[in-house]
Amino acid sequence: xxxxxxxxxxxxxxxxxxxxxxxxxxxxxxxxxxxxxxxxxxxxxxxxxxxxxxxxxxxxxxxxxxxxxxxxxxxxxxxxxxxxxxxxxxxxxxxxxxxxxxxxxxxxxxxxxxxxxxxxxxxxxxxxxxxxxxxxxxxxxxxxxxxxxxxxxxxxxxxxxxxxxxxxxxxxxxxxxxxxxxxxxxxxxxxxxxx
Length: 195
Prior knowledge:
The protein is of the alpha/beta class.
């Protein structure tokens, strides 16, 4: 059964209550390692009572507790314990932000970005790794920013614009059935060329 998928507003409200998140605020999400090299300090510059930043930290890597303390001081919700149904956190969010710059601190196509897009969540990302090549902004709910301009998106009007301007979800192109069909057609074409 597909878990990373869009849900309706009634289910979203129930999940917000379950995770004790504000019902009337837009949830800005990041999932990953709790360390400075991930550039997550940038979330401290996000201002506005309309938004709530939620950062879910990995439990399998060492966490930087001073950074967690700094983020919490800025009223950022940091969840640094294991969440069995992590897909629910994506489902109740309104925007996923991937601010990573350092290529040693994430894989070239981060799974968290794919998971967010699978839940029909718009994504704001740095031009990281293979993301711009595999997920062009004109085909998916993803917007790219140069690293030094990412903070400029963190104002009410730009954030709301990103949330509202959803494109049609094309993540079904990444479902295993579709990938398998594409691979089969590639192999067939290659075999025909050889004949």
